[in-house]
Amino acid sequence: xxxxxxxxxxxxxxxxxxxxxxxxxxxxxxxxxxxxxxxxxxxxxxxxxxxxxxxxxxxxxxxxxxxxxxxxxxxxxxxxxxxxxxxxxxxxxxxxxxxxxxxxxxxxxxxxxxxxxxxxxxxxxxxxxxxxxxxxxxxxxxxxxxxxxxxxxxxxxxxxxxxxxxxxxxxxxxxxxxxxxxxxxxxxxxxxxxxxxxxxxxxxxxxxxxxxxxxxxxxxxxxxxxxxxxxxxxxxxxxxxxxxxxxxxxxxxxxxxxxxxxxxxxx
Length: 267
Ligand code: SF4
Known about the structure:
Radius of gyration: 19 Å
Bound molecules: iron/sulfur cluster
Largest sheet: 5 strands, antiparallel
Helix content: 40-55%
Number of domains: 3
């Protein structure tokens, strides 16, 4: 039986025509919804009975994206047991301390032990630890250059971009529209750096999710008949230090975290 570990795995068996008849903007967006259990494979009218019969049962057994992420997390933890910690720490901008990798993420210290267990005084979830372990395993160690690119300009980014916009930039823009304090909170809580006027933005905040993976959130206020705009930029080396799919996952996790913080503030 085929196991789909990610939306990209499932995407490979879809027609890849982005015809939108499933009411989603692309085949990749459809794959992500199916993996989450929010759509059935049969909602794509172009799949043969054979494909549906072969794969739907397997997909129906998946109950939630959290379960999916936890399964991926266990696989990554197994790979971490084989990692050369000294080399990985040097490559990723972390340090080795007490036989653990200690890494600074968004201004907070996280530690990874030999079993791949991630600990921190902050709340952690699979949303955050999956991209973090991928960063440790896959980062090539390229030093950021300060040249910023949109997500779609990263390697493979155009393929993921419709889903990325839907899950990352659009909800973050809505949050920024509703919560004017958002950007000062990001600076205070996550050691962000104010970086206004880049790309003529009204507000800019630079964050460092991982030591060699900076991102820049730019926000343009509404003007007369123009609505507000938000875009997240990545260093041109980002794709060397984390595959584009995991940058999408990282960003989705960050947006969920920002939404939770904002809900707590508004209580
Ligand atoms: S209906 Fe099928 S082919 Fe069309 S976009 Fe959706 S998944 Fe892709």
